[in-house]
Amino acid sequence: MPFITAAVLAAFVGYAAAWYMELVEGNFALLLFLATIVTGVYWVAERLWYLPRRRRAAAELEARAAQRRGTDGEDADIAEAKQKVLAQPWWLDWTAGLFPVIVAVFVLRSFLFEPFKIPSGSMIPTLLVGDLILVNKFTYGLRLPVLHTRLTEGNAPRRGDVMVFRYPPKPSLDYIKRVIGVPGDEVAYLNKKLTINGQAVEQRRLPDYFERDAMRYFKHFEETLGDKTHRLLNDDDRPAFIPGAEPFPNRQNCRYSVEGVVCKVPEGHYFVMGDNRDNSLDSRYWGFVPDRNIVGKAFLIWMNFGDLGRVGTFD
């Protein structure tokens, strides 16, 4: 078993190293699931087989020593020998010993909350590059990890929610955007003005926003979607039309023009956009988010090492 365990652990380390060096496309959910299964098998084997064997060996050692002494007493040498017999070998310590921690992380990450780091500026000013956020995994219904099969119904995403989802063109990547249109909505983004089902979305102009990475000011607005109010940016240097829109499923539901785009959201899908409206690759470019791609609802910045004042909830 030590050799088999060494090979299994080496395979995990090799996969992680190849992922880190970008030699393979990593899948953390799958890696965590496999780690849970493997360590769980060792944990069961330890409880039902290996630990009872070590306890029997320790009892036999104590009995033999007692017979040699003619007493039931125990000296320091026997106590030390028993400790060595009862100790887990390294290959069980690194598998069965880690199972409680790994299974706790697996359950927490798969069904309750998952941490993410914001990698780009597409959600500025709501979320900044480097924000560490938490995502609620059960609001929209529990799903099986890896398979993504829905277990519970949950609540449907609403307009204005900040949602994490698996990027439709490449589901191994997680994206974060704001829900703009729900199934059945007609979303129009023309001349940088948002309309939903023929009703203009309310906007209020705010003082210009200074974006530190770009070292320039952008137009800054407050927008209300349903019962949610959030802020957004517009860049006057970017045109209103959508350049480079890709072919995507249900593209026939969208009409593109020099003014922008109008899309009818199909059943079981959502239309999402970044709050940094002119610096976001979103549904305007690659299409609708299927319900099966939903990961969860973002709700909390739990840390930003460059700005501790950002910690807290957000809209």
Question: What does this molecule look like?
Answer:
The protein has 315 residues and is of the alpha+beta class. It folds into two domains: 2-107, no CATH class; 118-313, Umud Fragment, subunit A (Ribbon), CATH 2.10.109.10. Helices cover 30% and strands 28% of the residues. It is built from six helices and 16 strands. The protein has helices at 2-20, 28-69, 76-86, 90-93, 99-112, 283-286, and strands at 113-117, 132-136, 162-166, 174-181, 186-190, 193-196, 199-200, 203-211, 216-225, 228-234, 254-257, 260-264, 269-273, 289-290, 294-303, 312-313. The strands form three sheets. Strands 1, 2, 3, 4, 13, 14, 15 and 16 form an eight-stranded antiparallel β-sheet that branches. Strands 7-6-5-12-11 form a five-stranded antiparallel β-sheet, with no helix packed on it. It has a three-stranded antiparallel β-sheet with strand order 8-9-10, with no helix packed on it. Strand 8 and strand 9 (216-225) form a beta hairpin. Helix 2 runs antiparallel to helix 3 (76-86) and helix 2 (28-69) runs antiparallel to helix 5. The radius of gyration is 28 Å and the shape is elongated. The chain starts with a helix and ends with a strand. The mean pLDDT is 91. One of its GO terms (molecular function) is signal peptidase activity. It comes from Ramlibacter pallidus. Residues 92-303 form the Peptidase S26 domain.
Determine the fraction of residues in helical runs and give it as a percent range.
Answer: 25-40%
Cα distance, first to last residue?
52 Å
- What fraction of residues sit in β-strands? 25-35%
CATH architecture label of the largest domain: Ribbon
Membrane topology: Single-pass type II membrane protein
Transmembrane segments: 28-45, 91-112
EC number: 3.4.21.89
Keywords: Hydrolase, Membrane, Protease, Transmembrane, Transmembrane helix
